[in-house]
Structures are given as C-alpha cells and as structure tokens.
Specification:
By secondary structure, the chain is of the alpha+beta class. The chain has 2 domains: 202 residues, no CATH class; 165 residues, Glucose Permease (Domain IIA) (Distorted Sandwich), CATH 2.70.70. Helix content is 57%, strand content 17%. The chain has 6 helices and 13 strands. The strands form 3 sheets. Strands 1, 4, 6, 7, 8, 10, 12 and 13 form an 8-stranded antiparallel beta sheet that branches. It has a 3-stranded antiparallel beta sheet with strand order 5-11-9. The longest helix is centred in the middle third of the chain and has 77 residues. The protein is elongated, with a radius of gyration of 35 Å.
C-alpha cells in the first residue's frame, strides 16, 4: 500500500462525512415540505360561496399535492438505489479491512519471530559502509511502511463506521420519504373528499329540483360549447389544408385509455343522476382508477386542446381525423400540449379529480361529426 492509496482512503472519509451531512439536510427539507391540509382548507374557506372559484382553487392544490407525490416516489426510487450502492461499498470496505488485518497479523508474527536480529543481520552482512547505509535506509522504509499500514487500517475502520452511519441516514430518509408519500396521499384524498362534500352540499342547498336540473344542464352545456368551439376551429383549419395532408381515421380499434382502472363507475347513455335523482344522458364512460395513474391516448391523432375548465377540470381532446375525437377529463396532470401529435398508447395525462368531480376517475368521451357516440363502438380491452 503506497501513500497515494492511503490518501484515497482519507479522501473517501471526507466525502462520506459530507454525504452524511447532505442526507440529514435533505431529510429536514423533506419533512418541512409536506402539505398542510388544515392551512389549505382555511385558505379555501373564503371562496366556498362561489363554487366555480372554489373548484378552480382546490384543483390547483390537488395538482400541487400530486406533483409532490410523484417527486417523493422518484426520490424513493433514487434512495433505494443509493442504499444498494452504500451496502456494496460497505461490504468492500469490510473485506478490505479483513485483508489488511490478515496482512498485519503476518507482519507482526514475522517481526516477533525475527525481532531485532533481522536488523542486526542486515547491518552486519553489509559488504561496505555504503551498503550498510543502504540497508539502514531500507530498515527505515520498513518501519515507515508498518506505520503507514497501521494508519491505513485505522482509517479503513473509521471509513466503515461512516458507511454504517451513512446507511442509517439513508434508510431513515427512505422511511421518511415513504411516510411522506402516505401523508401526501392522505392529504390528496382529504382534499378530494372536501370538494366532493362541497359539490354535494351546493346541490343539496338548491331549493327547487328544476333549478338543480338547470344547473346540471348548464354545466353539461359548458362542456359541449367548449368542445364544439374546438371542433369548429379544427374544421376551419382543415379547410385550409390540402386534401392529401388531412388526418384520416383508418378504422382501427382504440387502446383502453385507463390501464389502471378498477371499475366502470358510470356507463355511457341514459342514467339516473347520482345527485339530482332524475334520468339524464351521460356522454361518456367513467373509469374509476387511482389518482396519478396513467391516461393513454386511445389512438393516433393531433392534440387540439390540453387545458383546464371548471367543469371538465384538466382535460385533453384529440382529433383522430374524419370527424372523430376523443376527450379525457378530470386529470390531475397533463403531459401533452395543444398542437402535438400523439400515438396510440402514449401517456398523455394522469388520473385525477379536477373540475366537477367527486373522486379519482377518467371521464372518457368519443365524438363523431359533432355528436357523442358510445365509446364501446371503438374500444378493445
């Protein structure tokens, strides 16, 4: 072992001390960055009288919490990989220590058996004064080597203790991050419940059933007007394009847009509305799925809208050609933008509960030539 190798051990010790301090600081930041649901609810209290404003503000908070969850899950994956690396480094350091210890035992045994006789033999066997000086220098080098080996052994033991300390800090951070995910998911569910209760409360507060129905129809009309405007804009744009460059639907079956769905919570077609208690037309499929789970493009097409509205929440609308469109509502996050081309199965958004929604789900609609049609005509599971 030379001086350079010993220096490397000391450099590693300094590096590990810095990494441990950094891990402690990251843990403090993680703990201080968790969502304060109580504070959010207090801030939202002032806007409860205006349901539109309330939903928009709450959706903004839902998006923030969903981003925190995604960030924490990413940090957990990174930290798990770092822990594996630290464990491997610790194992290597322990093996290095054991090898050093065995080498030192042999050296000590040799010196014990030879003792001072070794040095005397070297000196008295010298053929000249110059040879004796050379051997004396060699003896000094041996002593310095023994000292250096001992120092390296002590440094390696210190490094092992630091690896153990780092591992403990990393595991503690990992546990905090996992607890943070649970906390954020609980906060997300709490805010979704808060919105659900508020929407239902507003519905209950409406005096006449006719007023409730009118309010619901206005909400659906808002959706339809937004979508119709987008369709009209696309149609006008297509008129400016040459026939050969127009997007055409080739008749293929759609990809299931919510691969993590657990159930169809509301079918397409006429149904008894859960809040109003009257039969109304439901223009799509509601696919119950975990918040943050992927929403996939059902088919190739151009994104004509990736926006937010108070009724649809975060939504994406895709033009597949020949008057065929798909709409994906209530997302927690959008991963595409207007004007981009997407392919069948591409991850375009995340399931959420934004807009007039009372729980995590994807509302999936299909329109053909300006009218809603059954998604079942195009879907294959």
């Amino acid at each position: 072992m030379d001086v350079k190798a010993s220096g490397l051990t000391n450099d590693l010790i300094k590096e590990k001390e810095q990494e441990i301090e950094s891990a402690r600081e990251l843990k403090k930041q993680l703990q201080s960055g968790l969502t304060d649901v109580k504070k959010i609810k207090e801030e939202l209290e002032a806007s409860k009288q205006d349901l539109t404003e309330y939903v928009e503000k709450l959706d903004g908070q839902l998006a923030t919490v969903q981003e925190k969850i995604a960030d924490l899950k990413s940090k957990i994956t990174e930290k798990e990989a770092e822990i594996i690396q630290t464990q491997e480094e610790l194992a290597a350091a322990v093996e290095d220590q054991e090898n050093q210890y065995e080498a030192m035992k042999k050296r000590i045994k040799f010196m014990y058996e030879k003792g001072d006789n070794l040095y005397m033999e070297l000196i008295f066997s010298s053929e000249s004064f110059g040879d004796m000086l050379n051997k004396a220098e060699y003896i000094e080098m041996l002593s310095a080597y023994d000292r250096m080996m001992l120092d390296k052994y002590v440094a390696t033991r210190e490094l092992i203790e630091l690896y153990k300390e780092q591992l403990e800090e990393e595991r503690s951070y990992l546990e905090d991050a996992k607890a943070g995910v649970e906390n954020e998911e609980a906060s997300l569910n709490s805010l979704i419940d808060e919105k659900k209760n508020r929407i239902e409360q507003v519905s209950d507060d409406i005096n006449a059933k006719e007023a409730a129905i009118a309010e619901y129809e206005a909400y659906i009309q808002e959706q339809n007007e937004t979508i119709a405007i987008l369709e009209k804009a696309v149609a006008e744009e297509k008129e400016r394009l040459a026939e050969e460059s127009r997007l055409k639907y080739d008749g293929g079956m759609f990809k299931w847009p919510a691969p993590s769905y657990t159930a169809i919570s509301s079918e397409y077609g006429n149904r008894v509305h859960p809040t109003l208690g009257v039969e109304k037309f439901h223009n799509g499929l509601d696919m119950a799925a975990p918040g943050g789970s992927p929403i996939l493009a059902a088919y190739d097409g151009n994104v004509v809208a990736a926006d937010y509205s108070n009724s649809m929440g975060n939504y994406v609308m895709i033009d597949h050609g020949d008057g065929l469109y798909t709409i994906y509502m209530h997302a927690s996050a959008l991963y595409v933008s207007k004007g981009s081309f997407v392919t069948k199965g591409q991850n375009i958004a995340a399931v959420g509960s934004t807009g007039r929604s009372t729980g995590n789900h994807l509302h999936f609609s299909v329109r053909l030539n300006g009218s809603y049609v059954s998604p079942w005509n195009y879907l294959s599971k």
